[in-house]
Amino acid sequence: VLVEHRAVVNHMTWMAAEFPLGADDTVLARTALSFDASVWEIWLPLLTGATLCVAPAAVTRDPERLLAYAERHGVTTAQFVPSLLTVALRAEAAGRDLPLRRLFTGGEPLTPALAARAADQWGVSVHNLYGPTESTVQMATHTFDPAADTVTVPIGRPVWNTRAYVLDTALRPAPVGVPGELYIAGDQLARGYLGRPGLTAGRFVADPFGAPGARMYRTGDLVVRRTDGALDFVGRADD
């Protein structure tokens, strides 16, 4: 996937403003560099004056060792996919004093029960991130609210300079509460796929709601727009 520099700049500028860190923060970098989720783990602390703590590969594969490592190095911000988060919450040793303040999760659906358990057990704010690589790391986010998010945890609202369309099969906007396919447009859109013009043309299509020449990315994800504007993930269009 060909991601432009300006797309990463837009994403990281938004994230640094949305989640301001400081000199007393430490971000755990545990995602392999081959995955785009590693981008913000590295650049967010460097942009905000926080400490970047790179976990050894052997540690990242063992949830109990990873938590001990995070405690030892004073990690305040970390990212877990929900499946790893489930195991990590079970593996936490009694008496451990994790300094975590904020927890990011993404890559898989996040259930209200899991988000609530993490918030309660670790005393953290939980932020659900969503976005395919084609829209540069993440294009939407939602901060878990245990009082409101009792049925689903939304994937949230778009980041800066990014548009989310919920469309039917005729590319018409789906009404609020009606499932449709998610299309993404804006500054974080990738150029396409390296050396694969046919695939690029099939997934990056003309944006009928944008300026002349604008494109949008067809995600294949089915979502519902809620009355408050947030998006709920409901499945895949090809399931």
UniProtKB/TrEMBL annotation:
Record Pfam families: AMP-binding (PF00501)
A single GO molecular function term of this UniProt record: phosphopantetheine binding
InterPro entries per the UniProt record, alphabetical: AMP-dep_synth/lig_dom, ANL_N_sf
Residue ranges crossing the lipid bilayer per the database entry: none
Residue intervals of the AMP-dependent synthetase/ligase domain: 1-194
Gene3D superfamilies cross-referenced by the UniProt entry: N-terminal domain of ligase-like (3.40.50.12780)
Key words of the record: Phosphopantetheine, Phosphoprotein
GO biological process: amino acid activation for nonribosomal peptide biosynthetic process; enterobactin biosynthetic process
A GO CC term attached to the entry: enterobactin synthetase complex
The keyword Phosphoprotein is assigned to this record: yes
Protein name as catalogued: Non-ribosomal peptide synthetase
